[in-house]
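ARCHIVE CARD
Drawer: 12
Card no.: 0347
Subject: one protein chain, sequence and derived structure
Cross-reference: see card 0346
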Amino acid sequence: MTVCLIEALVDTLQPPNGQTSLSLYTYVNPDALEKLLEASKTKESGVEVRFTIDDYLVTVRSNNTILIYEPLNAHRSTGGKSSFA
């Protein structure tokens, strides 16, 4: 899930040349996120984790859904949400 999350962030943030100095650890502990989502799957309970990265709201769900909401002042034709599953 962490790799998918990073790919989704790069796709959404669109850094130059696809390169970013973004450290996911600055915003969320990727290992803890993975463990929480895996534990949720084995207990068949839904979990949703939300955090922000550079004014983007990131939502990660235990059903392998990643939602990235653009800042309110952003103007894109996507309606303000990127969805990755």
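Annotation on reverse: The longest helix spans residues 30-42. Helices lie at 2-13, 30-42.
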